[in-house]
Amino acid sequence: MFCQNLKEWEVETISQVEFKKALGNYPTGVTVITTFDEKNKPVGLTANSFASVSIDPLLILWSLDKKSSLYDAFIQTSKFAINILADDQENLCSLFASKVADRFGQCEWEESAHQLPVFPAALSQLECEVYNKIDAGDHIIFIGKVIHITNEDKNPLLYHKRNFGAIPEEFYKKVAKV
User: Fold this and answer.
1) DSSP tag of 102
2) Residue 145 and residue 132: Cα distance in Å, rounded?
3) How far apart are CA 130 and CA 44, in angstroms?
4) Helices (H) and strands (E) in the chain, counts
5) What is the mean pLDDT of each run of 10 residues along the chain (178 residues)?
6) Residue 16: CA count within 13 A, CB half-sphere
7) Cα 22 from Cα 14, distance rounded (Å)
């Protein structure tokens, strides 16, 4: 029985490793999700688990690890902002992925008209009301109804294989030929 259980555990571990490998090889954009906590202190974290859900109504989603130190702040909020980072904001990405206590004290941010912390230099800002929260394994999925959008004429910051960077110029040359 012990050997059988060990084999099941090994398969599960291999599956998680392969899962992380597959998703780590999937290029994504990078966001910093922000809100104010119950003490009106701005909080935020880097996330690449972001996607569109619906056009009518305008819905997006992102997911948060239940072990995150910011879990309580986001679970209690009624709104949040998705700051889609530009290719010159790798420092902001790293700051909000770190364990630094006062992240907002080390960057430029402002409070939006909808009372959300946002980064004025971001590629886009999607300010959202919480539409739904879905329990999903070791994460919670937040679905947000977009109530305001700000866009800048910039290129996105990408995440691929644990690296951050801009879209290579060659990519645009290939696209222009098609």
Assistant:
1) -
2) 9
3) 16
4) 4, 12
5) 50 69 79 97 95 97 97 97 97 95 95 97 97 97 98 92 85 66
6) 6
7) 12
